[in-house]
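Researcher: I've been going back and forth with a colleague about how Protein nucleotidyltransferase YdiU might be arranged in three dimensions. Neither of us has a model we trust, so I'd like an independent prediction. The organism is Pseudomonas thivervalensis, in case that matters for your notes. Sequence below.
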Amino acid sequence: MKTLETLTFDNRFARLGDGFSAHVLPEPIDNPRLVVASPAAMTLLDLDPAQAETALFAEIFGGHKLWAETEPRAMVYSGHQFGHYNPQLGDGRGLLLGEVYNEAGEHWDLHLKGAGQTPFSRMGDGRAVLRSSIREFLASEALHALGIPTTRALCVIGSDTPVWREKQERAAMVLRLAPSHVRFGHFEYFYYTKKPELHAALAEHVLNLHFAECREQPEPYLAMYREIVERNAELIAKWQAYGFCHGVMNTDNMSILGITFDFGPFAFLDDFDANFICNHSDDQGRYSFSNQVPIGQWNLSALAQALTPFISVDALRETLGLYLPLYQAHYLDLMRRRLGLTCAEEDDQKLLERLLQLMQNSGVDYSLFFRRLGDQAPDQAIATLRDDFVDLKGFDAWGEQYVARVNREGPVDQDQRRARMHAVNPLYVLRNYLAQKAIDAAESGDYDEVRRLHTVLSKPFEEQPGMDSYAERPPEWGKHLEISCSS
Ligand code: AMP
Ligand code: MG
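Model: Here is an independent structure prediction for Protein nucleotidyltransferase YdiU. You can compare it with whatever you and your colleague have in mind.
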């Protein structure tokens, strides 16, 4: 285990040079203090979790001190926001401090969000508020624990620095970790600004560092695009299966690695609602829960456009065509598991669709339904869950089909079935109201609740003694929280 002083850096992205990023120093926040740290994320850097308690930790991640080997850079990129091309985005409030490499030989980008203004800040103040930093931290670590690919979060550092949003708030910084911070929007930037040399250098950098196995293929860039399509199909299948709504799927928020990236007004579904819009500013519902699937394809086609200098249009088109079938296969596979089914039958899709329709019309809690379905033997579970549905006749018919479907797989040992289902059906999810309670306490200076919630969510499938209240449906006040885009 290492201390902060002994981390080793190898800043490969910074070495690409000034065409890719600008050198900017972090602007410190006042009276920096640890709000929460993730021991699991710290071990990715071989960093001893006890280091989080040191004064140096809050000083570094509050922007006061830096390692001599870091080269803080603000990256330039562009992207399609709500379907419209924005030619100039970039890190407006985050800095890539450098890349740490661990003993396993992995590189991790250290990205400090809320680090002050950069050449890409446009009208923004370069800051992040405490509430959005806590939300990003909790979501990254919770998604990871659910098995959903995501950027990680090392810590949140709070401060006394005032920041103006709708009201006065306090600035915070979140330290994000990822193997790469390259977004779809990076490729779009060099494509649309017509900088072929830099564009080619970016493609080579990403291929060599992050898709090395594709170099063995006859067409390495095509193989890389295919891998990106596959990873995104799988990622979005996981979002849909676990009721995660990202909220701002602009191409500048899409990672080239196919991991969940840039958390804003995200939400996990409480009641199942295919049309749920978690982003209060998304009037058209472009990024509604069910639209995430076609938007994934839209974003991959925007990326394909930016890759046309390297890959033929026909090959790109054909590869993009793999997205939907791959998505559907992953999604159905995950949902079969959530239903406790162990083999595939042709009508499973219909069985699932009918269930979601019934849930939609009755406002059934999405996560708890699957958890409870595994609690008891199928027929008993159905009898218990029945009370949550309005269309009783409809649900009874579904229940009969479901029990028959399970029985066709042969005799079931209920203990085994429960264990199998509970391993894929979380008891604890990051409900908006849980995050809000933790944020309210943190804003008044009490960080216990954020830390407790983080701990509970780091083992979402395991029942934890004394933590029943974290598995409950939202109270009335917590059902329709409006999460604004300002963060
Ligand atoms: P987001 O909606 O968080 O993905 O951000 C979109 C763009 O706005 C990115 O280029 C961000 O860096 C930039 N941005 C967001 N908030 C701020 C802020 N407070 N100050 C400067 N830039 C910001
Ligand atoms: Mg963003």
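Researcher: What would you highlight for our discussion?
Model: I'd start with this: Residues 456 and 466 are 10 Å apart (CA to CA). After that, consider the following. Residues 4-183 form one domain.
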